[in-house]
């Protein structure tokens, strides 16, 4: 094969691989695609059935209550109130969602990832230590202390967290680049999976005593 043709074939294959590996929400093909549970006379788009656009109403694009603090009486002393396609059906195919995060003093939104979204967060009240870790093999820890009005971005798929380092409550609002970003909390996924991961796997992976692994699994 000639060099020029070989180069063009390589470029085409890379482009195809990139398109197949895309994790972002597809672009909408109509003004609205309000998600409904009833499939009768509906079209299936993005994992949801779409309401007839002629039948859409204001309530399909509305959510109330984000001004109210979430319940932070839990082990991590924080609460995430999500506003995604499950709460606002009109978000279907629009590729965006948001969340309110409430923190008690020294509460945290523990290390987690969003497999389908980049997150941009702004602090409304309090002081947060935030950060994310880049992928293997570099595993760089990039962090910042945020105060009221500060904004920080967490790239799609990377492990990140928020920790209230102040002595007062903190509140943040996050926007995410997917109608359904998904969330994987690292500790819960690794030590609280159902069924449990074989302790021998985790013992070697984390270089821990097997009793410590068993204890951690009992906690989740």
UniProtKB/TrEMBL annotation:
UniProt source species: Vitis rotundifolia (Muscadine grape)
Keyword Endoplasmic reticulum carried by entry? no
The molecule here is called Germin-like protein
- Limits of the Cupin type-1 domain: 64-214
Report the superkingdom from the record. Answer: Eukaryota
Q: Identify the GO cellular component terms for this protein.
A: apoplast
Q: Which residues bind Mn(2+)?
A: 112, 114, 119, 160
Instruction: Give the matching InterPro entries.
Output: Cupin_1 (IPR006045), Germin (IPR001929), Germin_Mn-BS (IPR019780), RmlC-like_jellyroll (IPR014710), RmlC_Cupin_sf (IPR011051)
User: Which stretch is the leader sequence?
Assistant: 1-23
Q: Source organism lineage?
A: Eukaryota, Viridiplantae, Streptophyta, Embryophyta, Tracheophyta
Keywords from the named record: Apoplast, Disulfide bond, Glycoprotein, Manganese, Metal-binding, Secreted, Signal
Q: PROSITE patterns per the record?
A: GERMIN
Give all cystine bridges in this chain. 33-50
SMART domains, per database record: Cupin_1
State where it is primarily located.
secreted
One MF annotation (Gene Ontology) recorded for this entry = manganese ion binding
Protein's UniProt keywords contain Cell membrane: no
Which compartment or compartments is the protein found in?
Answer: Secreted, Extracellular space, Apoplast
Q: What does the similarity note say?
A: Belongs to the germin family.
* Pfam families according to UniProt: Cupin_1
The residues that the entry says bind oxalate are 109, 114, 119
């Amino acid at each position: 094969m000639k060099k020029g043709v070989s180069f063009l074939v390589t470029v085409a294959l890379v482009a195809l691989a990139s398109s197949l590996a895309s994790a972002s929400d597809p672009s909408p093909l109509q003004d609205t695609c309000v998600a409904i549970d009833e499939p009768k006379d509906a079209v299936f788009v993005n994992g949801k059935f779409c309401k007839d656009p002629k039948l859409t109403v204001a309530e399909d694009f509305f959510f109330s209550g984000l001004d109210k603090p979430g319940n932070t009486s839990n082990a991590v002393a924080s609460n995430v109130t999500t506003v995604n396609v499950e709460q606002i059906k009109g978000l279907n195919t629009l590729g965006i969602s948001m969340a309110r995060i409430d923190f008690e003093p020294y509460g945290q939104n523990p290390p987690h990832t969003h497999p389908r979204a980049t997150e941009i967060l702004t602090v409304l009240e309090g002081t947060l230590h935030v950060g994310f870790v880049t992928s293997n093999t570099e595993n760089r820890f990039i962090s910042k202390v945020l105060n009221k009005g500060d904004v920080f971005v967490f790239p799609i798929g990377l492990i990140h967290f928020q920790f209230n380092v102040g002595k007062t409550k903190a509140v943040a609002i996050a926007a995410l680049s997917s109608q359904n970003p998904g969330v994987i909390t690292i500790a819960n996924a690794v030590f609280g999976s159902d069924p449990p991961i074989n302790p021998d796997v985790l013992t070697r992976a984390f270089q821990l005593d097997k009793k410590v692994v068993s204890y951690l699994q009992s906690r989740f």
